[in-house]
Specification:
single chain; Heat Shock Protein 90; 148 residues; five-stranded antiparallel β-sheet; two-stranded antiparallel sheet; globular; alpha+beta
Length: 148
């Protein structure tokens, strides 16, 4: 593991989504992710936590374990819950109408992260999302991106 690690276990409470999102966005920023990538990672964390609270716990009491770490190439975010354990269909709503409520969180995760997986646990679910850091090549070509 390279760089700072973020790790926290919290109640499944919508009021705690923003502080966790901001902490992971700040971590991504410190690791050299550009502003757009930081916002996209934060959005996915936000949506993932909201989905767990809404669907795994149905708004009832529960807890989440959130951790993120950088392996030198990618930021990995894990969100563990002890809720219903139902695996969402990540790509079921690819053609979702953006003007209809619900369902866009999974679309965002699928499109903005490089890898998303749901692993059922004995109780609950483990969501893992990965985003590679991309940097400008040093040859000055602003449109030429490569993995760090």
């Amino acid at each position: 593991m390279t760089g700072p690690k973020y790790e926290m276990e919290i109640p499944a409470d919508a009021k705690l989504i923003a502080p966790v999102r901001h902490a992971i966005e700040e971590q991504a920023h410190r690791l050299g992710f550009d502003e757009t990538a930081c916002g996209e990672i934060g959005l996915c964390v936000n949506e993932a936590m909201a989905n767990v609270i809404r669907h795994a716990y149905h708004g009832n009491a529960g807890r989440l374990r959130v951790e993120s770490f950088f392996d030198g190439e990618s930021l990995h975010v894990r969100i563990r819950d002890w809720g219903s354990g139902v695996t969402p269909d990540l790509y079921a709503k690819k053609d979702k109408n953006p003007f209809e409520a619900g369902g866009l969180g999974l679309v965002c995760m699928g499109r903005l992260m490089d890898k998303v997986s749901f692993t059922p646990q004995d109780v609950g679910m483990l969501l893992e999302m990965t985003r590679r850091r991309r940097v400008l090549k040093q040859d000055g070509d602003e449109n030429c991106w490569s993995k760090a």
